[in-house]
Please model this.
Amino acid sequence: MTAFLDKTASYIYERFSGNFDQLCIVLPGRRAALFLKKYLANYTNKTIWAPAIFSIEDFVEEHSGVRILDRLSLTFELYEVHKQIEKNSVQPFDEFMKWGQQLLTDFNEVDLYMADSGKLYEYLNEARAMAV
Model:
């Protein structure tokens, strides 16, 4: 059974051979991009210019001019905000790390599901008030 990316590489090679420099392929992840390059290489026995192959994250970062921060950098940024808000009752970084990572995950999920953050935090605030 032929792998999907192998079939894709075959299709790309047959349709666009000789015009790879004008081709941009966007895939869901970096791993898929790596395997597609490998499969494309199997279809030629000479040196060629490979098409531009990006993961969706890399493509957005490349063309938007916005740099996507890694998780550790985001944690440091969030800690700086924590220090600005809490001023005198700032937690040490090692204590902050315990719940800061979870907070980043929660923020990411709110963004992924395009939830109305104002309504969500209002609901959470009301639920917390009822629990007290």
The chain is about 65% helix and 5% strand. The chain has two domains: 4-64, 71-131.
